[in-house]
Amino acid sequence: MRKEIDKYVQNLQEAFFARKMRPKFHFSSPAGWMNDPHAPVWYRGEYHLFFNYYPYDIEGVRPKCWGHAVTKDFTSYRLLPTAIAPDTIHDRDGCASGCAVVHEDRLYLLYTGRNYYRRPREVQCVAYSEDGIHFIKEKRNPVVLPQSREEMDFRDPWVYPKDHSWQMLLGGKQEEIPCIYRYESDNLIDWSYSGIYAKAKEGQGTMWECPSLFQTEEKTILLTSPEHIDGIRQKSLYFLGREIAGTFFQETKEEVDYGCDYYAAQFFPFNNGPMMVNAWMNKWDNEHKTKTEGWIGTMTTPRTFFLEQGKIKGEFINSLKKLRKNETQLPNIPLESDRAVSFAEGKTSFWMKVDLAWEMMQGTYFEMHFLTDKAGSGGLTIRFEKNKNCITVENHTANHEESRRPIPIQPDFWNHNLKMDILVDVSCVEILIANEIFITNCVYPDEDSNVFHYCKADGKIIIPQIALFDMNPAEFHFEMKT
User: Fold this and answer.
1) What are the structural domain ranges in the chain?
2) Active-site choice (36, 91, 257, 425)
3) Which pTM was predicted?
4) For 158, which of 212, 247, 450, 475 could close a Cys bridge (C-beta 3.0–4.6 Å)?
């Protein structure tokens, strides 16, 4: 099965580069459907990126395999042969989400195998590789079964080392309450149940998917993606708390990203490096307008996070700066009431850095618009309203409950000068405000119009500084044949 997939995808590389909506420096589906990154792992001098994948169709319900790519710095990618495919009785309906880890110089994949005609229908399986390219499924699969054969939700293993053993976190439910199970192993094959690691409080969703964690000296940070929370189908949240006697106790929670196209976020596996996260830049129920080009699915730019005064802050991965070129400085930009000032006209891939000083603002709001048409319609709008302590994001190209979203802001937010980083990449917009608020959206401008970007306010304001950088495309090489 894998050889047929690889041959099919290899022959589509010309169509891949011809796509009009394909982002240039984000990793997007080589063909067909793509979702859920599987915790990129560093192995033999490269990051190995795995992802759920069905190249023959754009329907996410198809039995998915694991695609595989490698990169040294997320600016150049090599697409490798398919890692695993649904070819056993345990995963006949798909090799679903999981993670990758390195043990004794082998690369291990831990994944959820699905068979909807058996009970239990979701089990945990292992595959391994001696060379990081060719994977063999463990003969003893499945290696982890749920406590009850009737358990319907039991998925997304995430594995990390602790105290000379391996720990596995798994999303599930106990008496219809979302929880995360914990298992333990010495060899990644033989696992024993260790109990419930974390449990949802009232109102925290109906199912927790894609758990992962990061340990600092101060806190344990649990990252998970709840379903059906706060009236929204899917979110990614992080919980700050403490681990006591093998159980996580949550203290505070925050959204990882406030955009309408961000899900299945995962920490990179432990490798004594910084706290890094990447995610799927889509959601299951959102409009997938790229389906007209035969593909669905993009990954976010990896982000580096750090804990500061009890809050998670972050930035876009530093290596992405290698793609910047043609810097343009726009200092002291004056805005008059309701008169738009444009920037980056006609550009579809750029990095924008903005400095704002609220004391230099008169009026009630300030707006920035991206990927609109020449008349200023469509695209994405971000609106700052100081008198309402609110940032509102509206994706005019989407049509669902998150297309317009207010983000409440604490009053002291306005006491400081504001720095923003904005990545625009053809059909993707990632915004970072004050190293605290990430907003990610897929935005689909009218392909027949010249894109337009502008800002405006309802009173006088001076923007102290805008820096614009064109972005070189990331390199993509199809190496499906070995």
Assistant:
1) 2-318, 321-472
2) 36
3) 0.96
4) 212
